[in-house]
Amino acid sequence: MALLVCKFGGTSLATPERVQAVAKKLVAYHRQGERVVAVVSAMGKTTDDLLALAKSVNPHPPARELDRLLATGEQASMAVLAMAIEALGVHSTSLSGRQAGIMTTTVFSRAQISEVRADRINEELDCGRIVVVAGFQGITPKGDITTLGRGGSDTTAVALAAGLQADLCEIYSDVAGVYTADPRIVQRASKLANISYEDMLELAAAGSGVLQMRSVELARNFGVTIYCRSAFSADVGTYVREGKAMEESIVTGIVSDLSKAKVTLRGVPDRVGLAAELFGTIADGGVLVDMIVQNISEFGLTDISFTVPKSELSRLEPILDKLVQILGVRGFIVAEDVAKISVVGAGMQSSPGIAAQMFKVLANCGVNLDMIATSSIRISVVVGAAGVEQAMRELHTAYGLDSDSDFADTHLTAAELEAKMTKGR
Ligand code: ADP
Ligand code: ASP
Ligand code: MG
User: Fold this and answer.
1) I need a labelling partner for 159 at 20 to 30 A (CA). Which of 50, 276, 296, 358 fits?
2) Which residues line ligand 2 (CB under 6 A)?
3) Residues within 5 Å of ion ligand 3 by Cβ?
4) Contact by Cβ (8 Å): 139, 104
5) Nearest CA to ligand 2 atom 9
6) pLDDT value at position 425?
7) pLDDT attached to residue 411
8) Which residues of the chain have pLDDT under 50?
């Protein structure tokens, strides 16, 4: 008897029909004799709607109250799924993060799971029930509800798989696995059969939303095998597990990320310790900084550019206002109309010319580079947001990643899916 953790994202649970389709899948596993734990996201765009609701009454909602509110999205969907399972004649218990024993740190809006106390889940499984757990949330030692950051249900699923020593952690979404690029942007993206933790971590860090980065870190640390697959078809998916990079491919994937803003500090005094003070203060304010580039001019003044999530700008700007005064910086400029494009692959460590090829393709597309940062297995550039999709497709072709089939030809649109599901009932 295997223990399976199966996570379903918001799109997979967006309508009553989809919830019923998910219930059917779980019941089929249960009837095969598996012990089944489902982890759910909020239905459809519920989290965005709750966020908008909070902002409509307070542009800067207190983090504790916001987490309390956002956690309700997953709590509604867990109950609805448990009801749908019961309607198929199998007993099911839904558990909130607190009830499922997901203990976290006290960093509201991006808490980290510190421990899984799985006794209650095991009790319910021992009674032959399908357990449905609300993703994206946990509880602090003091008893406050926290959330794990956008996409955090992936992390709930992997943490439970690790804590319960599950045989497999299946992540169901609206695409059939991990592709060489977002198949909604690059229609010729190729599905990967396997991807190493290392490559998957880089894709996630570069901003590919298919798995939350923290979930991949946990999977690597605890040796959890993740299987990414479609909630809507039985297509073969992608295994994320320990392994060497595929020998034949130098580049594993290409990622675009439109969620970042570029901040430039103008006229920063050029002196020892300034960067430490600057970024220390920003970090103390709880803002996550991504790429950093510094240009020293001849006149003892420096420009420093860095990227931050757009969602952090409201927290960052008051900090920068203060820093400008304290440190004698001339001013700062925020550009939101930017995109980060990254080329990722463990194979590029031993292969020269990958960066040069990227810059050439982007130049041919007329794309100007604002920032460049490299690691041994990733090259990231920040560019203006216009023309990014075309540039992604050109890069994909240039690195020889194109598949023979077109994603749009082999995947149903949302409307076609709905029609198929309604007919199938
Ligand atoms: P869920 O709501 O189920 O968690 P997400 O929207 O978070 O699903 O993740 C799935 C989406 O990730 C896909 O619809 C796809 O557009 C996007 N995506 C981005 N990069 C990739 C990639 N390399 N492979 C597959 N999907 C990707
Ligand atoms: N509902 C949360 C979000 O939209 C968590 C998740 O879907 O994983 O980010
Ligand atoms: Mg997700």
Assistant:
1) 50
2) 9-10, 41-42, 47, 73, 135-136, 150-154
3) 9, 151
4) yes
5) 150
6) 43
7) 67
8) 424-425
Measured in Å, residue 38 CA sits from the centre of ligand 2 at: 15
Which residue has tokens 């996630």? 204
Is 190 touching ligand 1 by the criterion CB < 6 Å? no
pLDDT tens, 276-294?
999 999 999 889 899 999 8
CA separation (Å) from 268 to 71, 314, 326, 336?
A: 42, 22, 11, 21
| pTM tops 0.85 | yes
For residue 221, CA distances in Å to 175, 214, 216, 407 come to 26, 10, 9, 33
pLDDT of res. 141: 97
Per the structure block, which two tokens stand in for 144?
A: 């406050």
The answer to whether the CB of 208 is under 6 A from ligand 1 is yes
Instruction: For residue 338, report the distance from its CA to the centre of ligand 1, in Å.
Output: 21
In contact, 128 and 34? CB cutoff 8 Å: no
Question: Residue type at 399?
Answer: Y
